[in-house]
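[Discussion] Sanity-checking designs against the backbone

I'm trying to build intuition for which residues belong where. Below is a structure token string of 126 positions. I'd appreciate it if someone posts a full sequence so I can compare it with mine line by line.
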């Protein structure tokens, strides 16, 4: 059986992000609190998670921040790192609309979205 060729999707990311930001910018305060198909997660929770991922990408690939978020020094260190990361995300969530404004500014000021290669994923480049 022949290995399928990778599907290059990186060119779609700027348009996808632009449309996502447009939708998020149109939400009312009540809509930010709506539940999603992820049990226990609101629209704001999902948006905050996506922002956290994006900030991590910017930090690592644009700004060169190389400190590992999740150390491989054993179970306790992994749990502690995840708890720290989740606490940071929770702090971002409490920022509300400021969070969306920051996210929009990161992309409209530079005119592009920052995506870079990730080990094991093909088609992300920028």
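Best answer:
Here's mine. Compare freely.
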């Amino acid at each position: 059986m022949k290995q399928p060729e990778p599907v290059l999707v990186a060119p779609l990311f700027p348009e996808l992000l632009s449309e996502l930001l447009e939708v998020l910018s149109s939400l009312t305060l009540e809509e930010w609190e709506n539940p999603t198909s992820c049990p226990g997660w609101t629209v704001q929770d999902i948006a905050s998670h996506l922002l956290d991922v994006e900030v991590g990408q910017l930090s690592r690939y644009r700004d060169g921040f190389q400190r590992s978020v999740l150390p491989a020094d054993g179970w306790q260190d992994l749990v502690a790192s995840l708890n720290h990361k989740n606490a940071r995300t929770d702090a971002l969530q409490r920022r509300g609309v400021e969070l969306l404004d920051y996210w929009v500014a990161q992309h409209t000021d530079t005119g592009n979205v920052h995506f870079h290669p990730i080990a094991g994923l093909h088609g992300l480049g920028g």
